[in-house]
Design goal:
Layout: H1 5-27, H2 30-47, H3 57-79, H4 92-97, H5 116-120, H6 123-135, H7 138-149, H8 154-161, H9 165-187
Helix pairs in contact: 1-2, 1-3, 2-3, 6-9, 7-9
Pfam family, one: Sigma70_r2
GO molecular function: DNA binding; sigma factor activity
Organism: Vreelandella boliviensis LC1
Length: about 190
Amino acid sequence: MPLSATLAAAHFTQLRPRLVAFARLQLRDATAAEDAVQETLLTAFEKSATFEGRSEFETWVFGILKYKILDQLRQQRRQGTWQPLGQDLDDDTLDRLFQQDGHWQSAARPSHWGEPEQILENQRFWQVFDACLISLPESIARVFTLRELMGLSTTDICKEIGITETNCWVILHRARLRLRECLDHGWLN
């Protein structure tokens, strides 16, 4: 069912801070993030009458933002302002978590967090998750958010940012390890 302009505007007001936070995380540039969000809100507002409710309104708006972010990344690449992934992927996390033979370090074994459904409904968990995601190095955060939050395939990620598929999987693995470690410290302690 189409949304009224008043209802859409109310949704946009609520969504805007989350859209900006997500765009900043991906683009790592406040001005570019604001531009992407403004374009997203304008597009969503102009097309709100055509929203049919086949998904949540928020999901629909974030889908628009996803394409605006990809457009920004492509534009940065064309203008020469895009920064490719650096080589800041050190092995510190792997050394802290795993022994030479690949087994977990005793102190680094994953902790039990509780029931997944309950955790995902807990606002504190998401606050810690956001803080952990923001603390990731830029290159790792970019690949992780493209894959896990924006839903791009590894093939598309590799094409967009110019890395090999093997490198993409390594980066995703390291992102998950760092997030798990951060969540263990921030969520459970």
